[in-house]
Amino acid sequence: MAKKLLLSIFLTLTILSLPLLGAESQERTADYVVKIQNEISADIARLRTAIDAQLEGMSLSSSDIARRISELAVLTQKASDDMSAWGYTPEQRELHSRILSELSIAYAAYSAIMNASVPAAASSDITTLGNVASPDINTSDSLRREISKVSRGLDVQVFYLQSKLNKLRLDLAEAASLQKKLKEAEEGGEALDLPRTHVLELEAAKVNVALSRLQVRAQKRAFDTNTSAIQRLRRRLADMQGKLSFSQALLDSNLEKLQTRLTELAEEMNTARKALDSAHSSLIRARAMLTSRDSNALTSASATYTARSARVTYWEYMVSMIDDEIALTREAQQVWRDRYKLFHDQAGGDEIWKLRETAETRVNELRRQLDGVRTMEAAILRQVEATQTQANAEGVSGIIQQNIMQAAENQRKIIAEIFNRYESLIPDAIFLQQRLYEEANNNLSTIRLAEKVGSFSYDTVMGFLDTELWQGEGYSVTVSKLIIAVVVFLSSFFLSSWGSKWIKRRMINRFKASITAANAVQRIVFYILWVAFALTALNIVKIPLTAFAFLGGAFAVGIGFGMQNIFNNLISGFIVIFSRPFKVNDIVEVAGTAGVVEDIGSRSTTIKTWDGLDVVLPNRYFLENSVTNWTGSDLKKRETLKVSVSYDADSRQVEKLLLEIAGGHSSVLKNPAPFVIFKNFGDDGLEFEMYFWIELRKASGAKVSSDMRHHIAAVFRREGINIPYPQRDIHIIPDSPEQVKEDA
C-alpha cells in the first residue's frame, strides 16, 4: 500500500504539471447535447399519459376555442346578474369573477400560440458555414464561434424548457386535485358550496395543462432545431480537421486588418480625448456657477452641473474603453503570430509551455474583467433609474428637467455605446486566447506524455521503492517504508508543536495559569506527542522497534560521552521548572550575570541583561551556583546613597534635607519610608548614609540615585553646605629662642 501511495503521488504530480483548461472553455460535446435532448424527451414522455387523461373529451380545435371564448365573454357580461341570482357573497363574487378572467386569458393564450408560426431558433447562416473546399484557420474559427453561439442559446432553451416542464407538472397536479374533489363530492352525494365556480376552475386548470403542453412542444421543436444545428456544425468542424491551412498570406492579412483597426482606434482616441477635455472645461465652468444653496436643492445650476458631470463620465469611460481595445488588438496580433508558429511547428517545447500557461492566465484575467464590466453596467443602470426618477419628480420642469434628462441620456449612452462594445470585445479576446491555449496543449500531446511517463517510470520507481535496506525476524525495511516513516516523523514535529502550543494558550487564557507553569506543561506535552507520533509512524509502515535495536548501544555510548552535557542540562531544566527558584520576568543574578528572565527552556534559560543583551545560560548553572532572585518574594529593593559634608555643617539640617530630597522623588517608595543614618566622623567630613526603596519593575536604582545626587548637589549649594574633598592640615611648631639665636 505504501509503495502504491508513493507511486500515485509521483504520477499525480507529473500529470498535474500538464493542466487542462477548465471544461467551461470547451464547447459542448455532441454526447452532452444528445444526453440533454434524451432527458427532456423522456420527461415529456412520462407526462404524456397524465396529460391525455386530463384533456380527454376537451375540444381544442380553433373553432371550438373561438366558440368558447365567445361564450365566456357572454358569461362575463351577465356574471353580476347571475351571481346575484345565485346569492353569492362578496368574497364568492370575487372568486367567480377571477376564475372567469383566468379562463378567458388561458383560452386566448392557447389560441395565440396554436395559430402562430414558431420559427426555428437556429442561426440563419449555419447552412453556409464550412462549405469550402480548402478551409483555412479563419473558417475554422468562424465555425467554432457559431457553435459557441448556438450552444449558449441552447443553455437558455434548456433552462426555459425545464421551467415549462415544471409548470406543466404543477398544472397537472392542480387539475387532478380539482377533478378528484368534484368526483368525491358527486359520488358521496355531497353538494358543493359553489358548483358553478368549481366547474369553471377545473376547466381553467385543464386549459392551463393544454397551454403548458403547447408551450413545451414549441420550445422542444426550437431546442431540437438547435441541437441538430450543433451536431451538423460539429460534423463540418470534424471534416475540416487535417485539411486546415494557415498560410503566411493569411497571417499577413489578419495582422493587416488588426493594424488598420489600430489606426482607426488611434483616431478615435484622439477625438475622444478632445471631447473629454472640452467636457472637463464645461464642468469646471458649471462648478464655478454653484452656490451654497445649490448643494442642498435642485436648482438650474446644480442640474447643469449634474448633466455636465454625466458627460465627463461618459467620455472618461469612452477613453478607457478605447485604450482597452487598443491593448486587446495589439494582443490579438501577437496571438495570431503565436498561433502561426504553433500551426507550423516553429515553437520549441519550453516556448509552447510558456504560451499555454500565459494563455490560460490571460483567459482567467479576461473573464474577471468581463465580470467587472457587467458589475459596472448594473451600477450605471441603477444610476439611470435614479436620475430618471429625479427628472420625473413632482415640481421638476423646464431647463432643470432638460438637464437631468440629458444626464440620464449620457448614462444610457455609457451602457449602449461602451459596455455593449465591451460585451463583444472581451469575448472575442477570450476566444482567441482559448484557441491559442488549445493549440499549444495539442502540440504538447498531454495524454501520450502522461501514458509514457506512467509506463516508463512504473518499473523503475517500483524497483527503487522496493529496495530493501535491512531486514530482521518477521520484518524488512524498504525505501518506501523509510520515506513514509520519515515524512510522518518530520510532520510529528509540527503537529506536536501545534498541539502543545494550543494547550499552553488554553492554560493561560482559560485557566489563568502562570507563564512558567504553562511553558513547563507545553514542553512535557510536546515530548509526549512527539514520541506518540514517532511510534505511530513506525506502526504505519509496520517497522517494529526491534529494527532499531542496533542503535541502542550507539545511543547509550552517545549519552555517556557526547550527550552527557545535553542530558545534564535537560534534567536540570526540569528541576528548575518544577522547583521554581525563579520564574519568567523575575530579576536574577547568577554567575556574575544579572538581568530579567526571558525564557526557561528545557535545556537552557535566557536572561536579558541590563545592557539589552540576551544571555543563554545552561540550566546546570542554576544548580551549581548561588542564584540571587531580586524579585522572588517582593519587587521592592533597598538602595543606599552615601554623602559627606564639611564639619562646620549642621548635621540635623543635613538629615532633614536628605529626607526631603528622598521623599520628593517620584520613584522612591513611601512605604517603607526612607531614612538617614549619621554614619561616622570621617577624615574629611561628616559621613551620612541614606536608605530608600524602589520598585524594580518601575525604576532603576542607579538612575534614581543619580537623580538624587544631582538634587543633593543643588540643594547643598543653595543652603551653603559644603561637600568636602580629601584635605590635610599641617601645623608648624617654632623652635626654641636659643636655637634661633644660634642659627643666626
Task: Tag the structure with descriptive keywords.
alpha+beta, 3-stranded antiparallel β-sheet, Helix Hairpins, disordered N terminus, 744 residues
What does this structure look like?
By secondary structure, this protein is an alpha+beta fold. It folds into 5 domains: 218 residues, no CATH class; 197 residues, no CATH class; 91 residues, Helix Hairpins, CATH 1.10.287; 49 residues, SH3 type barrels, CATH 2.30.30; 84 residues, Alpha-Beta Plaits (2-Layer Sandwich). Helix content is 69%, strand content 8%. The N terminus is likely disordered.
Binned, the helix content reads 55-70%
Count of runs of 4 or more consecutive helical residues: 20
The total beta strand count reads 10
Structurally, the number of domains stands at 5
- Mean pLDDT, to the nearest integer, reads 77
> Over all CA atoms, what is the radius of gyration?
49 Å
The low-pLDDT segments are: 1-28, 118-130
N/C terminus separation: 127 Å
Largest sheet, strands/sense/barrel: 5 strands, antiparallel
Q: Approximately how much beta-strand content do the residues carry? A: 5-15%
Could you spell the SSE succession in H and E letters? HHHHHHHHHHHHEEHHHHEEEEHEEHEEHH
The helix/strand class is alpha+beta
Shape descriptor reads: elongated
Strand order of the largest sheet: 6-5-4-3-7
Question: What is the gist of this entry?
Answer:
The chain is an alpha+beta fold and 744 residues long. The chain has 20 helices and ten strands.
